[in-house]
Amino acid sequence: MPSPMPLAAARAGVPERGELPKYFQVKQKIDAVLDELRPGAPLPTERQFADRFGVSRMTVRQAIRELRLEGRVQRSGRSSVAGQPKLVQPLTLASYTEGVRRQGLRPGRQLVVFERLAAPPALAAGLRIEPGAPVFHLERLLLADEERVGLESTYLSADRFPALTDEFDPSTSLYGHLRRSGVVFADADERIETVLASPREVQLIGTSPALPMLLLNRVTRDAQGCPVECVRSLYRGDRFSFTARLTPEPD
After folding, report:
1. Is 74 helix (H, G, I), strand (E, B) or coil?
2. Which of 23, 175, 34 lies closest to 96, judged by CA?
């Protein structure tokens, strides 16, 4: 899916009134330097940037901190390097595995939890089952070329999929397994918001507690309109962006 063209005015960041903060001016200049570097290339040091732009190292540090949160800069040991391009995930009824593979990267999933539990009322309502009915909870780390980029929790009715723990390999695509089992995915409701990761999620994903995360909550339904799964997916904001194709609703 082609991405929309960036707007120069938006990137310029010029406020309606007043001057640009000095750190933001430096951020723009470093951003231009990054445009000339390949991913993983080392950046000049803070002192070199400070001398080059005639500002303090503290101002440079603040600019680089923001660029790091945006994914434009990454840390490599004690140095800073140009960041990797963000993974672009389409908002479609496709699995994470399929989306990452389309971008030429090697998808992977690492099992954290695969358990059977009683559905609390909110989850039961999402799956349209009775509160307390058994559900499977599958929690996995999301990997792209062995890099940890997210965390996904999936809940499914254990009565509907009683053999899931015996038949499904957690390192593979759950969507692929369900399709082979006869499930036809029809539609889904998905909500996207920004959050900060919990201490547990920070430890699992291996990211900074200050890094904004993209949280997706999805309920997926089959061709009969019956919920198949409730999914909570947490993605690193510095490594992911999402696209969607929009069409007009009928009048």
Report:
1. strand
2. 175
Cβ-based neighbour number of residue 84 at 10 Å: 17
Range of the domain at 41: 8-82
Q: Give pLDDT tens digits for 184-242.
A: 999 999 999 999 999 999 999 998 888 899 999 999 999 999 999 999 999 999 888 88
What confidence score (pLDDT) does residue 12 get? 56
Q: Are 192 and 203 in contact (CB under 8 A)?
A: no
Does residue 192 belong to any structural domain of this protein? Answer: yes
Mention every residue, 6+ apart, whose C-beta is less than 8 A from residue 92: none
Asked if residue 130 and residue 235 are part of one domain, the reply reads yes
What pLDDT sits at residue 45? 92
93 neighbors 231 (Cβ within 8 angstroms): no
Identify whether 218 is part of a domain: yes
Q: Cα–Cα–Cα angle for 138, 88, 208, nearest 5°?
A: 65
Contact 150, 235 (CB under 8 A): yes
- Tell me how crowded residue 91 is: count the other CB atoms within 10 A of its CB: 16
Read off the tokens for 221. 């339904």
Considering the domain architecture, whether residues 77 and 120 belong to the same structural domain is answered as no
pTM: 0.78
Cα 38 to Cα 18, 83, 105, 110, distances in angstroms: 35, 9, 17, 29
pLDDT band, residue 14 (cuts 50/70/90): low
**Rounded to whole angstroms, how far apart are CA atoms 39 and 72?**
9
What CA–CA distance (Å, rounded) separates 78 from 63?
A: 17
